[in-house]
Amino acid sequence: MSGVDDATAAVDPVVVETLAAGGVATVYEASGRRGLIDVDLVQIVPGTRVAGAARTVLCGQDDNRAVHEAMTVLRPGEVLVLTMPEPAPVALIGELLATQARVAGAAGVLVDAAVRDVTELRELGLPVWARWRRVRGATKRHRGSLDVPVRVGGVTVGPGDVVVLDADGGVVVARERAAEVAAAATARIGRESGLRARLEAGAHSYDLHGMRAEDESAG
């Protein structure tokens, strides 16, 4: 866990709020189409959107002992990222562990495996995204590793990187790029607001993006 507290503390809360407000699609485009978590994710609590510094957990295969340990160091505003060497439909978290995460003040949980107790998780209200919903339980024999780089959906998530999650899925922004990407996201939102107003007035994106002129000149 060495260095992770410094890493998470280095993320400006205003930057995190900006990335959360932008959402996954905007942040992905603003980051140069980098950091996409390229797998289908189940949004357990509909309508939620979060961003936060990653608290990463590499569990033993089909085992969640490391998740129990992670609850003792989880900090407010963090996104708990739970992984295994190979993704599998094994439940790494359910109601009782999620209760601990909520009490710790986690912004949300990303599970590159399964969750269970879905009804209870929705009632709890903690934003959770997972690969699968399965009741198959995990063992508790392998300690695993906390605060190490992990892989989810083809992207590396390092401790303290910013994870953004919403109905579109997820994207990861390296903590050293977070301020830059947040600024780009703000600019993109401003441009899209202007475009939206013109589209609502009857304009067409075919013209606004110059595609008609290009096609006509190409003949």
Describe this structure in words.
The strands form two sheets. Strands 1, 2, 3, 4, 5, 6, 7, 10 and 11 form a nine-stranded mixed β-sheet that branches. A two-stranded antiparallel sheet has the order 8-9. It has 219 residues and is an alpha/beta fold. The model has no long low-confidence stretch (mean pLDDT 94). The chain has a single domain (4-186), classed as Ribonuclease E inhibitor RraA/RraA-like (Glucose Oxidase, domain 1, 3-Layer(bba) Sandwich), CATH 3.50.30.40. The chain is built from eight helices and eleven strands. The longest helix is centred in the C-terminal third of the chain and has 23 residues, at 178-200. The protein is 37% helix and 23% strand. The protein is elongated and about 65 Å long. It has helices at residues 4-9, 13-30, 65-70, 95-104, 118-124, 178-200, 205-208, 211-218, and strands at residues 42-43, 50-58, 79-83, 91-93, 108-115, 128-133, 145-146, 150-152, 155-157, 162-166, 169-173. Helix 2 packs across helix 6 (178-200) and helix 4 (95-104) packs parallel to helix 5 (118-124).
